[in-house]
Amino acid sequence: MNRLEAGTVVRLQAEREAPFGYFLTDGEESVLLHQNEAAEEIELGQEVTVFLYHDKQGRLAATMKIPVIQNGRYGWAEVVGAVKTLGVFVNIGITKDILVSLDDLPLLENLWPKEGDKLFLSLKSDRNGRLFGRLATEDIIRQISRKAPESMKNQNVSGRVYRLLKVGSFILTDDGFRGFIHESERAEEPRLGELVKGRVIGVKDDGSLNLSLIPRAHEKMDKDSETILSFMESRNGAMPYSDKSQPDDIELRFGMSKAAFKRALGRLMKANKVVQKDGWTYAVANEQPKKQ
């Protein structure tokens, strides 16, 4: 009979009861099922299905909470913490958090997953039998991903980053499609496990997606318009900037080009939200408040 191994689901028999739980056996080895890990009252001699893991003391233990993620079985696990010298810890649905070693994480710590991010992984054991998270390889993602239809072009999608390369980021979308974001199609590099939202700019022959995290022109204009309105609100509805302002002044104050500023300002004027006069811009609702 195979030795009991952490990360696996097995059927064991209740051998004896203790004040703090039950000892289960396969006939050769015994493990503790703590009272807190038992989903029901157990009779001696009864067979139960349990998941094996190592408790905080490093002892092999059992739980009747069966996680989706097991040795050889993949799923999403939420990141719950990090230790610089070790890696990140994830919650797979049992009381013991699982370590994903820093050896399997990006070299740059700012690209490590943060709390709340999710990783697609299974479990593995080292030579000492200790349980670790195993990140899904590209081959695994290819096996479980769906083939995207051509009609997805220009659609919005969201998904989790599962692989980082210098040339770009790979994600698995919420709908199970595999996507790639070239470095030129993002403002900054997303973290491993981060949830990103983008749009489909191409569907490849193998059914994977080319994605962009850069907003469409009208979406960016909306964001620029919001930036302008927010600044005006902070000044009681008036600002000493207009479509005649100097490009350097606009870049310094708003972080956008003059062309983008003019487009956004034009959109606001067309919507009758602002008016310009004597080099100033005023919120229509406020008419022309005192200049500051």
Automatic annotation (TrEMBL):
GO terms for molecular function: nucleic acid binding. SUPFAM superfamilies: Nucleic acid-binding proteins. It holds the Pfam family S1_2. Gene3D superfamilies: Nucleic acid-binding proteins, Winged helix-like DNA-binding domain superfamily/Winged helix DNA-binding domain. Residues 154-214 form the S1 motif domain. Belongs to the CvfB family. This is S1 motif domain-containing protein. It comes from Bacillus oleivorans.
